[in-house]
């Protein structure tokens, strides 16, 4: 199921009705806690849109608290907390400055979606991972790619392609679906809404 | 005993060293009179540092106000006297004024908690766009980045200083080095524990063979060190450094007996990257300067 979390609403709910800027570490921590409570309500397997459209300013401290620490909890190569995927929307250029800095610091990556529906992988990913993600992403809304297709398209061995897809899945950049993989971002395109809990 | 501290005519980051040279040797509980009667001009750094100076003294100091009416008016419009009245025994006539000062982006403002940073950010956003884009010919992209940098340097007080400090932002024409080019200046001053003591409070901290205020500034500003173990810490100043680099600006931070500067690529400033063995002043004093864009 696809959920939508409006970060600006979380800010007003958790910190102050009047604030529209995400600044200071305590503010970021409070907003993240509010988001986590929302995530606790939506089950163990979900795709969640984190929407920054109504956020004015995002500073580095808040980006670290909200984006990096959220990802660190749910996106881990070892034992992710739950199967929660994130898609970040409404990211402005100045938001991106702060987000890219914290992703680099923690060696994380995420998927952003633009107003035209196009998705972009940002943060720290190696060349093969990026190439595989883009191949899967270009297949279109909700279409999954299997290991053989990805190996063929990237020129990697089957074993290596499988390992890399598993890494992308553990990093919650692709979704395991129908014996294949769907890129986070393409799953939310309006053509064919996808249900993860089906 | 009471000692008179003479404040130079032009009070900014460099000339404030003359004030500190006079104050540093004195015992903390010695009464001082800060004599600004002959002051003709003060930068945001000068005004915020004067407040931090009063906070750093055990005995409430006396402030002789500027004699020149336009100077006194201007300091009033910057809200300097409003705060100074709580820290100094003020002597001399201060005229209150309600006239707005168009060059002032942010009057001298107290920072001691997270909410103060929110207030500063809300306030400056309304004024920054016009000042930076129209008056300084800077790209519109700067407004948000400028506010981010301001937020981060203010947060340093809340997170590290251990006591309240001050921020002020203003545009003015920098005649000395830029031949009349306008600049926007952020000054943030606190009399707290400073960079060295902050790093020393880190769990498991071990002093190196050479460890002083200069080293602490280099570690923090150039290498992103922080007293917190959390690897996400220390990004704020790194972001500020990147911001000043992008806009050919200058960042200088003084703490204890040292001052570090991230210098502009252009040739509008000839400062030293690191100055050591300065007169001691507690806390941290930060200045960010962004020059007008010229074709």
Q: Which key phrases capture this entry?
A:
heterodimer, A: Transcription Regulator spoIIAA, Arc Repressor Mutant, subunit A, 7 helices, B: 295 residues, alpha/beta, Transcription Regulator spoIIAA, Heat Shock Protein 90, 2 domains, 7-stranded antiparallel sheet, 25% strand, globular
Overall number of domains of chain B: 2
Q: What's the CATH architecture name of the largest domain in chain B?
A: 2-Layer Sandwich
DSSP, total strands of chain B: 13
- The value of Rg of chain A in angstroms is 16 Å
Largest interface: A-B, 27 and 25 residues
Give a summary of the structure in a few sentences.
The complex is a heterodimer of chains A (198) and B (295). Chain A has 198 residues and is α/β, with parallel strands linked by helices.
Structural overview:
The complex is a heterodimer of chains A (198) and B (295). Chain A has 198 residues and is an alpha/beta fold. Chain A has 2 domains: 1-124, Transcription Regulator spoIIAA; 125-198, Winged helix-like DNA-binding domain superfamily/Winged helix DNA-binding domain (Arc Repressor Mutant, subunit A). Chain A has 7 helices and 7 strands, in the order E-H-H-E-H-E-H-E-E-H-H-H-E-E. A 5-stranded mixed sheet of chain A has the order 1-2-3-4-5, sandwiched between helices. Chain A has a two-stranded antiparallel sheet with strand order 6-7. In chain A, helix 1 packs across helix 2, helix 3 packs across helix 4 and helix 5 crosses helix 7. Chain A is elongated. Chain B has 295 residues and is of the alpha/beta class. Chain B has 2 domains: 1-94, STAS domain (Transcription Regulator spoIIAA, 2-Layer Sandwich), CATH 3.30.750.24; 106-295, Heat Shock Protein 90 (2-Layer Sandwich), CATH 3.30.565. Chain B contains 10 helices and 13 strands. Chain B has helices spanning 16-23, 44-56, 69-77, 80-87, 114-135, 142-161, 175-178, 194-200, 213-223, 235-246, and strands spanning 2-6, 10-11, 31-35, 41-42, 62-64, 89-91, 104-111, 165-174, 181-190, 250-256, 258-262, 274-275, 281-291. In chain B, the strands form 3 sheets. Chain B has a 7-stranded antiparallel sheet with strand order 7-8-9-13-10-11-12, sandwiched between helices. A 4-stranded parallel sheet of chain B has the order 1-3-5-6, with helices on one face. In chain B, strands 2-4 form a two-stranded parallel sheet. In chain B, strand 10 (250-256) and strand 11 (258-262) form a beta hairpin. Classes of the chains: A alpha/beta (198), B alpha/beta (295). The A-B interface holds A 16, 19, 21, 23-27, 56-61, 64-65, 68-69, 92-94, 97-98, 101-102, 105-106 and B 114-115, 117-118, 121-122, 125, 141, 144-145, 147-148, 151-152, 155, 158-159, 231-233, 235-236, 238-239, 242.
């Amino acid at each position: 199921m696809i959920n939508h979390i409006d970060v600006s609403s979380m800010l007003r709910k958790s910190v102050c009705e009047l604030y529209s800027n995400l600044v200071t570490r305590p503010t970021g921590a409070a907003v993240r806690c509010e988001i986590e409570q929302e995530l606790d309500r939506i089950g163990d397997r979900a795709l969640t849109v984190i929407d920054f459209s109504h956020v004015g300013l995002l500073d580095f401290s808040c980006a670290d608290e909200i984006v990096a620490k959220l990802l660190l909890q749910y996106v881990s190569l070892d034992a992710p907390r739950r199967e929660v995927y994130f898609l970040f929307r409404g990211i402005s250029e100045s938001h991106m400055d702060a987000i890219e800095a914290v992703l680099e610091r923690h060696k994380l990556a995420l998927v952003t979606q633009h107003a035209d529906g196009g998705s972009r992988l940002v943060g720290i990913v190696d060349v093969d991972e990026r190439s595989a993600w883009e191949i899967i992403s270009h297949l279109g809304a909700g279409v999954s790619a299997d290991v053989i297709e990805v190996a063929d398209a990237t020129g990697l061995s089957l074993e290596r392609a499988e390992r890399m897809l598993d890494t992308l899945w553990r990093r919650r950049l692709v979704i395991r679906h129908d014996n294949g993989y769907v890129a986070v971002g393409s799953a939310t395109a309006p053509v064919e809404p996808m249900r993860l809990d089906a | 005993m009471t000692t008179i501290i003479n404040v130079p005519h032009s009070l900014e980051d460099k000339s404030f060293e003359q004030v500190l040279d006079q104050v540093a040797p004195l015992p903390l509980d010695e009464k001082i009179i800060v004599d600004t009667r002959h002051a003709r001009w003060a930068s945001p750094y000068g005004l915020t540092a004067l407040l931090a100076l009063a906070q750093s003294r055990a005995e409430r100091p006396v402030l002789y106000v500027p004699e020149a009416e336009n100077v006194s008016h201007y300091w009033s419009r910057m809200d300097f006297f409003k705060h100074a009245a709580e820290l100094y025994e003020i002597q001399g006539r201060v005229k209150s004024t309600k006239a707005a000062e168009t060059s002032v982006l942010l009057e001298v403002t107290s920072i001691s908690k997270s909410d103060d940073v929110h207030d500063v950010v809300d306030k400056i956003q309304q004024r920054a766009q016009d000042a930076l884009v129209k008056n300084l010919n800077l790209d519109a992209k700067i407004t948000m980045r400028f506010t981010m940098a301001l937020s981060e340097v203010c947060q340093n007080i809340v997170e590290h200083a251990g006591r309240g400090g001050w921020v002020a932002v203003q545009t003015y024409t920098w005649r000395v080095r830029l031949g009349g080019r306008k600049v926007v200046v952020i000054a943030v001053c606190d009399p707290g524990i400073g960079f060295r003591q902050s790093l020393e409070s880190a769990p498991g901290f071990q002093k190196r063979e050479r460890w002083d205020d200069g080293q602490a500034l280099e570690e923090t500003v150039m290498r992103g060190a922080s007293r917190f173990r959390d690897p996400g810490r220390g990004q704020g100043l790194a972001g500020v450094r990147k911001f000043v680099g992008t806009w050919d600006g200058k960042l200088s931070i003084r703490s204890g007996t040292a001052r570090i500067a991230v210098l502009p690529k252009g040739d509008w400033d000839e400062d030293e990257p690191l100055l050591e063995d300065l007169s001691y002043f507690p806390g941290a004093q930060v200045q960010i300067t962004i020059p007008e864009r010229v074709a």
